UniProtKB/TrEMBL annotation:
<feature type="site" description="Transition state stabilizer">
    <location>
        <position position="18"/>
    </location>
</feature>
<dbReference type="GO" id="GO:0009073">
    <property type="term" value="P:aromatic amino acid family biosynthetic process"/>
</dbReference>
<comment type="similarity">
    <text>Belongs to the type-II 3-dehydroquinase family.</text>
</comment>
<feature type="active site" description="Proton acceptor">
    <location>
        <position position="23"/>
    </location>
</feature>
<dbReference type="GO" id="GO:0003855">
    <property type="term" value="F:3-dehydroquinate dehydratase activity"/>
</dbReference>
<dbReference type="InterPro" id="IPR018509">
    <property type="entry name" value="DHquinase_II_CS"/>
</dbReference>
<dbReference type="InterPro" id="IPR036441">
    <property type="entry name" value="DHquinase_II_sf"/>
</dbReference>
<feature type="active site" description="Proton donor">
    <location>
        <position position="98"/>
    </location>
</feature>
<feature type="binding site">
    <location>
        <position position="109"/>
    </location>
    <ligand>
        <name>substrate</name>
    </ligand>
</feature>
<dbReference type="Pfam" id="PF01220">
    <property type="entry name" value="DHquinase_II"/>
</dbReference>
<dbReference type="GO" id="GO:0019631">
    <property type="term" value="P:quinate catabolic process"/>
</dbReference>
<keyword id="KW-0057">Aromatic amino acid biosynthesis</keyword>
<comment type="subunit">
    <text>Homododecamer.</text>
</comment>
<feature type="binding site">
    <location>
        <position position="85"/>
    </location>
    <ligand>
        <name>substrate</name>
    </ligand>
</feature>
<comment type="function">
    <text>Catalyzes a trans-dehydration via an enolate intermediate.</text>
</comment>
<protein>
    <recommendedName>
        <fullName>3-dehydroquinate dehydratase</fullName>
        <ecNumber>4.2.1.10</ecNumber>
    </recommendedName>
</protein>
<feature type="binding site">
    <location>
        <position position="78"/>
    </location>
    <ligand>
        <name>substrate</name>
    </ligand>
</feature>
Length: 142
């Protein structure tokens, strides 16, 4: 069975409560059920942390065995060379997801340290972006 890691970074534990006009009113835990139902043959591993090192540790832990990583690193996207290095260090292909259209927001959100380490980037499509990223990763040949 293929395994995909969904990794959410800081403040994404507050989805549903946090700026719903930008991020919507659905919690991620609720959305996760939809993903799991959409991919019954895929084992979805989910991890969220507000701490950069914990996100890196999870990439180290699973990145050598997992079939793909969907990463929304939140604000660490725009700051973290360490997370970018972690993605480079492991063989698992990654897709970067942002719920909001970061390019239509503040300038500091336009740059990502992670994009160059990922197969592709999905921005601004809301939570559906995670579904599309999983769909892409499971379609890849090993
Ligand atoms: C975000 C965009 C980031 O700029 C922001 O810091 C987030 C969420 C998104 O999903 O749209 O925390 O990654």
């Amino acid at each position: 069975m293929k395994q995909i890691l969904i990794l959410n970074g800081p403040n994404l534990n507050l989805l549903g409560k946090r700026e719903p006009e930008i991020y919507g009113s659905r919690t991620f835990v609720d959305y996760l059920e939809t993903i799991e139902q959409a991919f019954p043959d895929i084992q979805i591993r989910y991890f969220q942390s507000n701490h950069e090192g914990e996100l890196i540790d999870k990439i180290h832990e699973l990145g050598f065995t997992i079939d793909g990583i969907v990463i929304n690193a939140g604000a660490y996207t725009h700051t973290s060379i360490a997370l970018a290095d972690a993605l480079s260090a492991v063989p698992a292909p990654a897709v970067e997801v942002h719920i909001s259209n970061v390019h239509a927001r503040e300038e500091f959100r336009h740059h990502s340290y992670l994009s160059a380490k990922c197969k592709g980037v999905i921005v601004g499509l809301g939570l559906l972006g995670y579904d599309l990223a999983v769909r892409y990763l499971v379609s890849l040949e090993k």
